[in-house]
Amino acid sequence: MSDTEQGLGSDPESDWEKVQASPEFTELRRRLRVFVFPVSALFLLWYLLYVLLADYATAFMGTKLFGNITVGLVFGLLQFVSTFVITGLYVRYANRKLDPLADKIRHEVEGIER
Question: Keyword Transmembrane on this protein (predicted)?
Answer without folding.
Answer: yes
